[in-house]
């Protein structure tokens, strides 16, 4: 029986918290802490009404401030901290976990809020040149904690959402059960859902738009190949969703999989987008609304993308109006017993079913469930290993079993259509 501190109470957190409450074998007490404590209080009330046998308390925290997170950890004494705030807070929360010797779990790798900060910018530009990709995020900042986490005897589980998270577990599972060698991985993220708005994002708009408007890239023969945003387009006929256009993006799990599965020759990530989403995004970008650099407006500094976030629907509010399904998974090719082989492992998730169960749309659901699973595996000891790791670095079997048990059942297709 464990005591968990959850930081953040947005769309993903609300699913993770409710799923933890349903897993009373592992989670007996939770403290919900965020910037806006009223969201934590609403969640506490909802769980208490459900009758789940978990003791919930709430707190306010500024997770950009290491000292404030340390204060909260020392006061609550949790067995682990689940960070479902924003990637901007990753390092501050990791520092606090290190100081208090508590296990750390998150769903997205670090990126800075201010990409113009000179020290960070210099390191970023050096990395762009050395590694050959220009995304604002990479694993180097969090992998740098490896030795300190080992010395402190604590586990850091990085990126246990769906992608990254489940897609990396699918890769470990494919390697363990289907292949002697994996040669290619195509990660396909299809959202066939419709929320009825001309434009809205399914998770935090700032993080989402930064990711989607950036250059694409993929891993081939040991190095990165970068593309212009949306340069590579394919159509794919997704099981239970149908034909959709999808575009090649840079995505964080490619970096970890490229490192941990060195025999893989090519790793690509594709995400589906409708034309209306792309047209709106291009227009917003052209007028400067996606910029992260502050501008002066009527004497005040405002960051255009943060102002845009305030105008867009809150992703946590899309649940009641989103219909349709997501299909997220990986297509693997490689060799087993000297024979060529291909395998597609995927999950299909229905937006309205998620809403009926927990009041959320499927993007928050497909991220929040794996956040609970990764946390449970660290807490029970199944995935406890001092150091800092991604989800492909553990035994995938218990995670795969929990996906089936907690609402994200998966399918194995041994004769899929490949992406050209
Ligand atoms: P939301 O914006 O809905 O929620 C973020 C939460 O963090 C809010 O409750 C917010 O508080 C809180 N927060 C922000 N800054 C601070 C701070 N300084 N101190 C304390 N709390 C803070 O985001 P999502 O739920 O959509 O996303 C959560 C995380 O999940 C992100 O890191 C995102 O990148 C990741 N994600 C991962 C995916 C995956 O598959 N791996 C997919 C989708 C998302 P407030 O309410 O005051 O704004």
Word description of this protein:
Helix content is 38%, strand content 26%. The protein has 420 residues and is α/β, with parallel strands linked by helices. It has a domain at 166-352: Dihydrodipicolinate Reductase, domain 2 (2-Layer Sandwich). Strands 7, 8, 9, 10, 11, 12, 15, 16 and 18 form a nine-stranded mixed beta sheet that branches. A seven-stranded parallel beta sheet has the order 3-2-1-4-5-6-17, with helices on both faces. Strands 13-14 form a two-stranded antiparallel sheet. It is globular. Bound molecules: NADPH dihydro-nicotinamide-adenine-dinucleotide phosphate. NADPH dihydro-nicotinamide-adenine-dinucleotide phosphate binds at residues 7-13, 34-36, 39, 61-64, 84-87, 89, 107-108, 159, 161-165, 203-204, 207, 315-316, 367. NADPH dihydro-nicotinamide-adenine-dinucleotide phosphate is lined by residues 7-13, 34-36, 39, 61-64, 84-87, 89, 107-108, 159, 161-165, 203-204, 207, 315-316, 367.
Structure described in brief:
By secondary structure, the chain is α/β, with parallel strands linked by helices.
């Amino acid at each position: 029986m464990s005591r968990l501190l959850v930081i953040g109470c947005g769309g993903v957190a609300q699913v993770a918290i409710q799923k933890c409450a349903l897993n009373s074998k592992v989670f007996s007490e939770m403290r919900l802490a965020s910037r806006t404590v009223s969201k934590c209080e609403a969640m506490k009330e909802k769980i208490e009404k459900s009758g789940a046998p978990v003791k919930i308390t709430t707190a306010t925290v500024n997770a950009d401030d290491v000292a404030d997170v340390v204060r909260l950890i020392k006061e609550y004494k949790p067995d682990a901290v689940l960070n479902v705030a924003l990637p901007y807070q990753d390092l501050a929360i990791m520092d606090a976990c290190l100081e208090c010797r508590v296990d750390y779990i998150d769903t997205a790798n670090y990126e800075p809020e201010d990409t113009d900060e000179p020290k960070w910018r210099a390191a970023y530009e050096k990395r762009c040149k050395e590694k050959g990709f220009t995304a604002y995020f990479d694993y180097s900042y969090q992998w740098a904690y490896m030795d300190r986490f080992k010395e402190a005897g604590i586990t850091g589980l990085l990126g246990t959402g769906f992608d990254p998270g489940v897609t990396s577990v699918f890769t470990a599972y494919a390697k363990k059960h289907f292949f002697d060698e994996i040669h290619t991985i195509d990660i396909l993220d299809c959202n066939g859902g419709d929320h009825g708005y001309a434009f809205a994002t399914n998770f935090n708009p700032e993080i989402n738009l930064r990711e989607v408007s950036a250059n694409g890239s993929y891993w081939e023969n040991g190095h990165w190949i970068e593309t212009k945003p949306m340069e590579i387009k394919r159509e794919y006929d997704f099981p239970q969703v149908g034909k959709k256009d999808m575009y090649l993006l840079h995505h964080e799990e490619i970096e970890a999989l490229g490192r941990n599965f060195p025999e893989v020759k090519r790793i690509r990530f594709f995400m589906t987008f409708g034309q209306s989403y792309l047209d709106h995004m291009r227009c917003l970008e052209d007028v400067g609304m996606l910029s992260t650099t502050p501008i002066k407006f009527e004497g005040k500094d405002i960051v255009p993308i943060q102002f845009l976030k305030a105008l867009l629907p809150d992703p946590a509010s899309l649940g009641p109006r989103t219909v349709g399904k997501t299909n997220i998974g990986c297509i693997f090719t490689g060799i087993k017993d000297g024979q060529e082989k291909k395998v597609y492992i995927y999950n299909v998730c229905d937006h309205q079913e998620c809403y009926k169960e927990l009041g959320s749309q499927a993007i928050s659901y497909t991220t929040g469930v794996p956040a609970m699973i990764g946390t449970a595996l660290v807490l029970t000891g199944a995935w406890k290993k001092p150091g800092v790791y991604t989800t492909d670095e553990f035994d995938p079997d218990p995670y795969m079993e929990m996906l089936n048990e907690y609402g994200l059942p998966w399918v194995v297709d041994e004769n899929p259509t490949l992406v050209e």
